[in-house]
Amino acid sequence: MDKQHEDSEENKARPGILLDSDEKSSPHHRHLHHRHSLGYPLPSLVELHIHLDGSFRHSTLFELAQKKGLQLPNGMEPTMENFLPYICVQSVCKSLAEFLEKFPFFIPMVAGNVEALERVAYEFVEDQAIQGVLYTEARYSPHGLTADKLKAQDVIEAINRGLQRGMKEFFIDVRTILCCIRSHPQWSMEIVNLADKYRSAGVVGIDLAGDEHNYPLDPHIPAFKRAVELGIHRTVHAGETGSPESVRQAIELCHAERIGHGYAIIEDPSVYDLIRRKDIHLECCLTSSIQTNAVAKYIPKDSEKQEKHIMLHGHETTTTLHYHIKSRKEVWHPIHHFARDGLNFSLSCDDPSVSQITIEHEYQHALADLKLSPAQLTQCVFNAARSTFLNDNEKQLLIQRLLAKYIPKEIMTDHFHDNMISNTPFTKNT
Ligand SMILES: [Zn+2]
After folding, report:
1. In a domain, 88, yes or no
2. Residue 107's domain is classified under what CATH number?
3. 233 in helix, strand or coil?
4. Residue 206 is inside which H or E element, if any?
5. How many whole angstroms from 107 Cα to the centroid of ligand 1?
6. Residues in Cβ contact with 193 at an 8 Å cutoff, skipping those fewer than 6 apart
7. Does 344 map to a domain?
8. Which of 169, 240, 257, 362 is catalytic?
9. Which pLDDT value is given to residue 120?
10. N or C: more exposed end of the chain, with fewer CB within 10 A?
11. H helices present in 279-413, as ranges
């Protein structure tokens, strides 16, 4: 981050927790413990790869759809039960493209409507707070939410209003990442300019999202170079359904500091080594990697195929998930290898309302099915914290807050604390 911009961002009063040490003063924070239905204390998590436009509440979408006179295909009765298959994944998709087909159905319920945009942003903050997410970076494409009625900046301002209101009320910190879209390079330079303009309103970076098979990143390179000049942070979706080369290009040509997904690096030791050497953060999304079939090509031939319902808060969702993640001999998912090798990765939901998951589900899934150890899961949280796009001051405050939640104060030493801040893993990977 360029020093001039960093200094100007420091000590700006934002409504979350990072610059306010009096967390216990919030009655809403206590209230959240009652809303959390799992019956144990809230975890303290950091989530970096979550699409705001894939996180709308089903009930809100249904309500907004009804206001617009919801009609389902083939004259189907417009009930919530019949509506869900159009907005959520029910099982494994054939491809990422099939997963993404849900979006054109429900985005119009929210797009172009400033009240709806503000509402879903506010609800997003509440939903993250209920799950014990202390800090999150929500990403979205402003252009994808204009519906040709609003300007991209109107979308950003509406979303910022909802996020600010949510942060004040639910006492967590949310920042935003604006997405460039592979198929629309004409938007990318404007995204960089908007990220610059709204930097003081919580925009911390840019992303490149969309179909990496059919749309190369070349036309987006000038925008990402400009982002570097302006000190705007960068993440790129790469190596999800694409190749390891796509990850290398994201790092070398778009100067990506983080990679969305990146599973394909498992195919190329030189890219795997590049990620490790540069300590590039991998934003991994376990359920989405299976639902989109992104990791199917790595399945060993002798793997067991099983299907189970995704459980949320003790209730079955309508989504079933093939979780052939175990061969007869070993657990094989790329994330399992990332953990074993101590790569800098974390867990996120990607599109939780489309996948019907929560961040807790992702941690449970990684523990039960990928056999990650509790220490590795804890490492994920701290990997995420040290890889946020916050400025150094805020990042240190976040890490301190997490340390206070995870490590008893009595055993904390200055040496231990300093090591954590300087990116040294504090748990050994097994
Ligand atoms: Zn994503």
Report:
1. yes
2. 3.20.20.140
3. strand
4. strand 203-209
5. 16
6. none
7. yes
8. 240
9. 98
10. C
11. 286-291, 334-340, 352-355, 359-368, 374-386, 392-406
Residue 240 is a catalytic residue: yes
Q: Would you say residue 426 lies in a domain?
A: no
333 within some domain: yes
How is 137-190 classified by DSSP, letter by letter? EEEE-SGGG-TTTS-HHHHHHHHHHHHHHHHHHH--EEEEEEEEETT-GGGHHH
**Contact criterion met (CB below 8 Å) for 312 and 355:** no
How many residues in total does the chain contain? 430
C-alpha 418 to ligand 1 mean position (Å): 32
Q: Report d(CA 279, CA 399) in Å as an integer.
A: 18
208 alpha carbon to ligand 1 midpoint, in Å?
Answer: 9
Highest mean pLDDT pick, 18-22, 270-274, 328-332: 270-274
**What spacing in Å lies between the alpha carbon of 95 and ligand 1's midpoint?**
14
Number of structural domains in the chain = 1
29 CA to centre of ligand 1 in angstroms: 29
Q: Give the structural domain span for 284.
A: 3-421
What does the pLDDT average to over 113-128? 97
Q: End-to-end alpha-carbon separation of the chain, Å?
A: 33
